[in-house]
Every structure is written in structure tokens, then in C-alpha cells.
């Protein structure tokens, strides 16, 4: 059991964000100040003494009972069904403290796991509609010497600050649009949409550590790229792209390594995608190449994309952005997107070095948020014959977007409603053949026909690999509820499940010096049904639980994480 002496706790307090533009980062960094116009959030301005020296129980009890009024859990939308902790807004703006650990955290695990996600889904009495609408909640698990310090904090985006100051929605979120009261303001709204001024900067999807050490929270709008401090979770400022590439949106999941940041910029005017690359220590993206769409009328949604050692794979999914839907105030069944099966689906393969397209094939229709990994397959002479691409594939069925509406997530009655998903494996031939293939990489029953929120050992990014970690399903359920280790060679899955709970993305951290692909730990944060929650560590190889630590109170569901290793 870890010792419980060193901790600090901030209970329902508000710390003003930095007021100057000086950010402790290399001089090449360019971040603007995030000082709110009015000095801060309207939710809670009370500053209470940080807990210290007292017993942990006292601090935890304080944290658990002093939720500011604005953070009361939001209603489920159905009087008979109690909302699961996973879909209940975070109860206060921030908290930090050491957790008691059951089991053993490996001593080699030294660093911080950060997880981002949309954890605040209401403004006063007004409830947001969709999982993806919520304001970003950043959570940290800091591991050192077998001990664990936990903390969470709201990201101080302009959208969050404006909403809390005015107690109303001020920017366009995934499904929510601020109300317009007159025709004249509607015209203004259109201008603000086209210029990007009204788009959200609510960086609620993921978090990445750049090769130069900066930690950036991201969403699908480019302006929603926000630099944070991985220790304090402070919002440091906007990540400003200094190039003149323009555009308003990008993939929520760039590919980030020690040497580069690669992402896709969809072009809604001339349907296509720019593949861009940014070097560590700079804020300037440079164009690698461009892909024109083969189907129309707009590019497919690119929440994520895969790479191999030499190629960037640009997916053209028939779930396409829709300019018309962007302009609508009320959400459409597919929000800002439209399903165009008649336009077909394609995979384009671009050479990273030259920007040339080496293959562009039609593939079976598919729906995915998350690509898992990709690699080059070679013949006996070492020539690359195919590119293999794996993703969490929703059986070409867009209803998953609707299932992620909060009302649906909050109204689970025991009836199985989660649509089937699988590990979709594409084979893209590089010999000029016009078609690629898509099949299940393993029997989906191995993981309960649920499949999303994946990670791999990052050392295998773009390379032939054997293991993926993801969330599967123990049915009946309305959301993926297992942690699953997938063996793509033996076509088997091993599932971890705790009845009634919802675990977040299993995140793999390799043991330093490991030679086996699955030598490491898998971290997840688990939300219990009735207000509780805990962090769990599984052994990457056996997939057995090795440690867990209860949170002072349950946290809402979160999406994606990053690992920031300790520097010493
Ligand atoms: C949380 C998550 O996974 C996805 C979030 C997506 C967002 C916030 C998308 C926002 C958008 C707009 C506000 C307008 C333009 C289109 C689009 C990128 C979908
Ligand atoms: C949580 C999710 C899908 C679950 C489906 O079973 C998708 C999240 C997408 C954004 O990161
Ligand atoms: Fe995602």
C-alpha cells in the first residue's frame, strides 16, 4: 500500500489562469495568453486553502461534499433512470491529491498519464445534447516510486470561459449552436461561421506530447489546440499555428512522434485533404502533399488516420462533412455530417517523403472514428506489396453517432442497444489494382461485438504489430464496457470487465528496456454506476489487474490520453 502523507488538495476552488504571456517553454514556442476578460470563471471564484498536513480522508471527504452549485450532476433526462457517473458532469473545477493504492504499481512506472475528454455537459439548467459537446476535463495520474497522485481540472478555453461567464453557450460545439435572436444576427452568425470566429476552441478530445515537450490538448477545430502544463494542468495558452495554411478544421488525432507531428486538413471547398507535417520546436506546418477526393460532394470525416513507416494513409469515408448541416442551427441526424453510400469509400496512400499518391483504391463502405495502426506488407524479396490498415469499424452503420447522445447514454435499461463493431482490417494493394479489401481481423464475438477507443505499444506505430488494446462489450450494454487485449496473430481477445462500470480507453505504457511488444502496463480510468470511480492498472502481458486506486469521487467518461515520462 502506498504511503499517504504527501498530498495537496484544492476543493472547489478557482485559481486565476496566468495573466502574462510568459510561458515556460523553449523560445520558439508561440502561445497567446488565456487571461479571461473578466478575470475568470463565473462558476466558483472562492479560493480555499489547499489541504495539507491533515488526514487524506478529511480532504477526500471535503472534496466529495463541497461541489459548487454550478457543478451539480446534471439530470439524466429520464426520471426513472439514474444517470451513470460516466455521463454525469464533473462535480468541481479541480482537485488534486494522493490516492491509496491496492496492489502494486511497478516501480519503473514513472511519469504522468493525462486523459482529456468532454466532462461538463450542462450550463445551469441547460443540458447539452451529445457526448462530444462537453467542456474539456483534463485528468492526471502521476506515478512515481509506486505511488499515485491524481488530479483533474477544466481546460480554460475561450468557449468554456465565455459559457461560464455568461451562463450560456457562446460558441458552436459538436452538436450545440448558440441561439440567434434576429435575422440580422443570423447574417452575422454566417459570417462568424465562415471566418471560424464562432467555432469552439473547446479542446475536449485528446492530448499529445510534442517532440519538444509541449503538451497540447486538441479537438477537431484548429483553434481548439491548447497548451497545458502536465503537472499543474494549468491552461497555458493557445497553440497558434504560424503558417498560412488556413482552414478551420483538422483531424482530432494527429500522429505525434519524437520527430514529427503529422495531420490532415480537410478541404471543404475543393474536396480533398492536405497532409501536413510540423517539426518539434516550431508552430509551422508544411505541406507534404494533397489528395483530391474521388467521391463527393465533400471530404469524408477524418477523426483519425493511420501511417506506416513510409506512407500516410488518407481515408475517404462516405460519412462526409456537410456544409449545409454546418449552417443549420438545429442538429440533423448525423450532426455536421451526411452519409453518402453512393459516393463510395476510398483509401489513398501517400508517400511521406515525396507527397506522391502511390495507391488510391475503392474499398467497402465503412464507418470508423479510430484507426488502430497500419503497416507495410512485403514479399519474399522485401518489396512492399500491400498496406494493411486496422480500425475500430462500426459495420458501415452511422447509428453509433446517435447512440452517443447523452439522453441515450443516460437511459440504459438493461436492454442491449450497442450496435455491433469489429476490428476492421483493410488490405490496400500497391500494384495498381483498383480495389482494396475490408474484413474483420478476428471474430467480433471475441470482444462482445463492441470495439472502440484503442491503443498500441507506440514503438510499433506504423510497423507490423500483434497486440491492440481497446474497449469491447459485455452485453447487454449501451456503451463499450470492457477492457480488451486483442491478439491479431492468434485472433483472440482477452477481456477485463467490472459489472456496471465504464472504463475509458486502455492506454499502453511500455516498460523501459522491454523487448516484448506487450511488456508494460495498461492504464484506464473507470466510472462506477453510482458516483464512484477508480484508476486501474493491468499487466500488458497477462492482462491481469495489478493495481487499483479509488478516486475521491467518480469522474465522467473521458476520451483519449497521453504519457508524459518523468524527466529524471
Ligand atoms: C469530442 C470529439 O471526439 C469530437 C469533437 C468534435 C467537434 C467539437 C467538432 C466540431 C465541428 C464544428 C464545431 C464545426 C465544424 C465541423 C466540426 C469539425 C464537426
Ligand atoms: C466513444 C466512441 C465510440 C464508442 C463506440 O462504441 C467514440 C469516440 C470518439 C471520439 O474520440
Ligand atoms: Fe477520438
Automatic annotation (TrEMBL):
How does the cofactor attach, per the note? Binds 1 Fe(2+) ion per subunit.
Please provide an example of a Pfam family that matches this protein in its UniProt record: RPE65
Q: Does the keyword Iron apply?
A: yes
GO BP: any one term: carotene catabolic process
| Listed transmembrane segments | none
A GO cellular component term found in this entry reads: chloroplast
Q: Where is this region: Disordered?
A: 34-59
Residues where Fe cation binds: 253, 303, 370, 560
Q: Which UniProt keywords apply?
A: Dioxygenase, Iron, Metal-binding, Oxidoreductase
**Known InterPro entries for this protein?**
Carotenoid_Oase (IPR004294)
Q: What is this protein called?
A: Uncharacterized protein
Task: Give the protein family.
Answer: Belongs to the carotenoid oxygenase family.
Q: Name one GO molecular function term.
A: metal ion binding
Q: Iron as a keyword? A: yes
Required co-factor(s) are: Fe(2+)
Amino acid at each position: 500500500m502506498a504511503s499517504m502523507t504527501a498530498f495537496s488538495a484544492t476543493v472547489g476552488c478557482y485559481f486565476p489562469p496566468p495573466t502574462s504571456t510568459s510561458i515556460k517553454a523553449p523560445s520558439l514556442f508561440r502561445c497567446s495568453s488565456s487571461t479571461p476578460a473578466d478575470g475568470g470563471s463565473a462558476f466558483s471564484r472562492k479560493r480555499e486553502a489547499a489541504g495539507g498536513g491533515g488526514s487524506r480522508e478529511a480532504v477526500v471527504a471535503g472534496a466529495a461534499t463541497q461541489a459548487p452549485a454550478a457543478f451539480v450532476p446534471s439530470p439524466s433526462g429520464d426520471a426513472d433512470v439514474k444517470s451513470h457517473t460516466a455521463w454525469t458532469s464533473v462535480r468541481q473545477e479541480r482537485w488534486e491529491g494522493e490516492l491509496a493504492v491496492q496492489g502494486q504499481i511497478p516501480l519503473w512506472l514513472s511519469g504522468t498519464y493525462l486523459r482529456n475528454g468532454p466532462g461538463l455537459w450542462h450550463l445551469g439548467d441547460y443540458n447539452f445534447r451529445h457526448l462530444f459537446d462537453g467542456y474539456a476535463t483534463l485528468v492526471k495520474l502521476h506515478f512515481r516510486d509506486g505511488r499515485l497522485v491524481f488530479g483533474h481540472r477544466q481546460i480554460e478555453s475561450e468557449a468554456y470561459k465565455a459559457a461560464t461567464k455568461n451562463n450560456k453557450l457562446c460558441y458552436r460545439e459538436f452538436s450545440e449552436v448558440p441561439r440567434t435572436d434576429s435575422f440580422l444576427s443570423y447574417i452575422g452568425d454566417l459570417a462568424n461561421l465562415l471566418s471560424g470566429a464562432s467555432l469552439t476552441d473547446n479542446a475536449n478530445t485528446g492530448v499529445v506530447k510534442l517532440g519538444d515537450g509541449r503538451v497540447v490538448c486538441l479537438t477537431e477545430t484548429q483553434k481548439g489546440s491548447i497548451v497545458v502544463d502536465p503537472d499543474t494542468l494549468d491552461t497555458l495558452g493557445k497553440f497558434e499555428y504560424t503558417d498560412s495554411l488556413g482552414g478551420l478544421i483538422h483531424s482530432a488525432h494527429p500522429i505525434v512522434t519524437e520527430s514529427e507531428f503529422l495531420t490532415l486538413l480537410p478541404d471543404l471547398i475543393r474536396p480533398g485533404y492536405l497532409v501536413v507535417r510540423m517539426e518539434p520546436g516550431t508552430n509551422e506546418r508544411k505541406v507534404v502533399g494533397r489528395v483530391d477526393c474521388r467521391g463527393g460532394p465533400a471530404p469524408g470525416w477524418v477523426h483519425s488516420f493511420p501511417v506506416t513507416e513510409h506512407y500516410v494513409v488518407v481515408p475517404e469515408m462516405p460519412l462526409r462533412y456537410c456544409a449545409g448541416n454546418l449552417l443549420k442551427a438545429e442538429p440533423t441526424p448525423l450532426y455536421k455530417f451526411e452519409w453518402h453510400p453512393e459516393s463510395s469509400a476510398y483509401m489513398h496512400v501517400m508517400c511521406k517523403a515525396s507527397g506522391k499518391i502511390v495507391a488510391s483504391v475503392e474499398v467497402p463502405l465503412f464507418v470508423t472514428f479510430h484507426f488502430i495502426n497500419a503497416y507495410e506488407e512485403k514479399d519474399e524479396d522485401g518489396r512492399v506489396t500491400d498496406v494493411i490498415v486496422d480500425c475500430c469499424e462500426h459495420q458501415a452503420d452511422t447509428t453509433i453517432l446517435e447512440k452517443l447522445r447523452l439522453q441515450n447514454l443516460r437511459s440504459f435499461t438493461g436492454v442491449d442497444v450497442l450496435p455491433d463493431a469489429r476490428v476492421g482490417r483493410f488490405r490496400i494493394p500497391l500494384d495498381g489494382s483498383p480495389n482494396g479489401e475490408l474484413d474483420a481481423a478476428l471474430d467480433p464475438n471475441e470482444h462482445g461485438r463492441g470495439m472502440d477507443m484503442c491503443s498500441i505499444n507506440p514503438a510499433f506505430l506504423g510497423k507490423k504489430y500483434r497486440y491492440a488494446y481497446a474497449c469491447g462489450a459485455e452485453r447487454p450494454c449501451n456503451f463499450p464496457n470492457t477492457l480488451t487485449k486483442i491478439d491479431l496473430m492468434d485472433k483472440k481477445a482477452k477481456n477485463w470487465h467490472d459489472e456496471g462500470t465504464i472504463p475509458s480507453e486502455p492506454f499502453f505504457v511500455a516498460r523501459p528496456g522491454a523487448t516484448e511488444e506487450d511488456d508494460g502496463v495498461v492504464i484506464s480510468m473507470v466510472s462506477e454506476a453510482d458516483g464512484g470511480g477508480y484508476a486501474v492498472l493491468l499487466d500488458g502481458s497477462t492482462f491481469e489487474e495489478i493495481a487499483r486506486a479509488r478516486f475521491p469521487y467518480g469522474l465522467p467518461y473521458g476520451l483519449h490520453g497521453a504519457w508524459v515520462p518523468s524527466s529524471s
